[in-house]
Write a structure and sequence with these properties.
single chain; alpha+beta; eight-stranded mixed sheet; about 20% helix; about 35% strand
Length: about 170
């Protein structure tokens, strides 16, 4: 049976958001109803577009999905960019979500980079309490939870590290 575009988008968002989702097409962008709030996959924050996927993916899967959209996982390179994104996500009702970033460190390395082409050393950090965990060599990918206010290093591939992600 052939599905039309609206039906396909509904199925994708229903799976991605985990809960009560009503999908519609609005001015060429996908939007969905989550609780009482309307969420758009593309969000403009301070003049910059971000693609937000409320999903359950490993860092590697998230990176691949951004690449398939010709985007990359989010980097926070400019002064105040992380704070602006975090504040906007609070207003959008994303407080309880964890999001992958493009932050990465190679095995046996202490240097954290934005893993772009070419990679760029991270110059401004927003670590959460007790982070980064220097004693855990498996913690190599950076994520954050909006309500926590800090970055966390976690395993890139294995459960329970299935998180949402942001592309830019």
């Amino acid at each position: 049976m052939m599905f039309n575009l609206k039906q396909n988008l509904f199925v994708v968002l229903l799976i991605s958001i985990f809960s009560f989702t009503l999908c519609s097409i609005e001015k060429g962008s996908v939007s969905s109803q989550v609780g009482e709030q309307q969420v758009r996959e593309f969000v403009n924050i301070s003049g910059k577009e971000y693609f937000v996927k409320l999903a359950s993916h490993t860092w590697i899967e998230s990176k691949a999905e951004c690449a398939a959209l010709n985007l990359s996982l989010v980097t926070f390179e400019g002064p105040g960019e992380y704070t602006a994104v975090r504040q906007a996500f609070q207003q959008l009702g994303f407080e309880s979500f964890w999001f992958w970033t493009d932050g990465f460190r190679a095995a046996n390395s202490s240097e954290w980079v934005w893993l772009r082409e070419p990679s760029v050393p991270i110059s401004e950090f927003h670590w959460g309490p007790g982070q980064p965990s220097e004693d855990n060599s498996e913690d190599r990918c950076i994520n954050f939870r909006v309500m926590s206010g800090g970055w966390y290093g976690d395993n890139c591939e294995f459960p329970p590290y299935y998180l949402s992600y942001i592309c830019e």
